[in-house]
């Protein structure tokens, strides 16, 4: 029986990457709900360097839907967890691979690349799930 530890570890790292992307989505939601508080935060924190104008940054963040990003990221995490569950015991590696790959591609497209860090790990885990075959015993 083939072990799927590599795919599970990549899935966990991918989920952590999606956690980072969810923080970005929450920032977008925060800016959309309270623009003045965001301006105050940028002004009060000297460690945050702003390249370009703050108005342009706020306009860019307001042009995307943080709620949609967050929903897609949560859906991708759920798909990843389901994929890791069906990988346990090497039950359905093809289903797990499809779940990993589809969630990686869809989340990257919808978020415009904001979820790319998690998606890369899901993509690798999905390819590994689909490609790896059980070793055949060598007959002598």
From TrEMBL:
Residues 3-109 form the DUF4064 domain. The chain crosses the membrane at residues 7-31, 67-87, 99-127. It comes from the Bacteria. Pfam families: DUF4064. Keywords: Membrane, Transmembrane, Transmembrane helix. This is DUF4064 domain-containing protein. It comes from Alkalihalobacillus trypoxylicola.
């Amino acid at each position: 029986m083939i072990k799927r530890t590599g795919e599970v570890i990549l899935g966990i790292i991918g989920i952590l990457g999606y956690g980072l992307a969810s923080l970005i989505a929450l920032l977008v939601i925060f800016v959309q709900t309270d623009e003045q508080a965001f301006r105050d935060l940028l002004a009060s924190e000297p460690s945050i360097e702003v390249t370009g104008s703050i108005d342009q940054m706020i306009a860019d963040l307001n042009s995307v839907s943080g709620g949609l990003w967050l929903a897609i990221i949560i859906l991708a995490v759920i798909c990843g967890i389901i994929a890791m569950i069906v990988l346990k015991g090497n039950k359905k590696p093809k289903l797990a691979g499809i779940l990993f790959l589809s969630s990686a591609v869809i989340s990257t497209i919808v978020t415009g690349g904001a979820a790319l860090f998690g998606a890369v790990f899901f993509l690798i885990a999905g390819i590994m799930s689909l490609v790896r075959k059980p070793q055949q015993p060598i007959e002598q």
